[in-house]
Amino acid sequence: MTACTTTRVVVADDQTVVREGIVMLLGLLPGIEVVGSAADGDEAVRLVAELAPDVVLMDLRMPRCDGVEATRRIRTDHPGTQVVVLTTYADDDSLFPALQAGARGYLTKDADGDEIVRAIDDVLSGDAGLSPKIQRRLLERIAEPAPSRPEPPAEPPDGLTAREVEVLRLVAGGQTNPEIARTLHVSTATVKTHINNLFAKAGLRDRAQAIHYAYRHGLAEPPGASAR
Hints:
- Helices cover 49% and strands 13% of the residues.
- The protein has a six-stranded parallel β-sheet, sandwiched between helices.
- Helix 3 runs parallel beside helix 4 and helix 8 crosses helix 9.
- The longest helix has 15 residues.
- The chain is elongated, with a radius of gyration of 21 Å.
- The termini are far apart.
- The mean pLDDT is 87.
- It comes from Streptomyces yunnanensis.
- This is Response regulator transcription factor.
- Keywords: DNA-binding, Phosphoprotein, Transcription, Transcription regulation.
- Pfam families: GerE (PF00196), Response_reg (PF00072).
């Protein structure tokens, strides 16, 4: 950002001390104006609609609406606002859903003021604002061999939809309903609906039967099968 340009920022973090600390830090940085702060994702989305900031610094683990869902909603409804994740977590289950939801930057909370400014500059310039740690993880992930997946049948059995097959495959992989919701970027209620529908179509009573059904129809691979 140039000396004559002010970047308007909203900070979203559910921990009051952390949120106020970030706001205070940003207030000391040249060219940045904090125009609002939010304690959860719903409030962040509302503030973006109201204030049209340039950037949101977004925590991930928040009540009511987490950072991934808030990011998805902001990027869908307010594409002029960029999102930089600022979180404690750098694990794959946090990183990749956030990037898939539309975040263009990702920092951990040990980032200093210079790193935050650099990430904000990068996303406003159309680049990715990623910390060196996150860049390394992305490169490692790209270099990892893709896990083998069983080829699904040409037509899903029992009239299952493609989405129901996807949900069934995740069930067979041991994911809970909230985990499936995060993987697919949908609500837990939507996951429950898909599960109820596929159970009804396939005549299944419980998850154990669903897992056996997925193995039998080649929709998922039993643990250890790839090693044989």
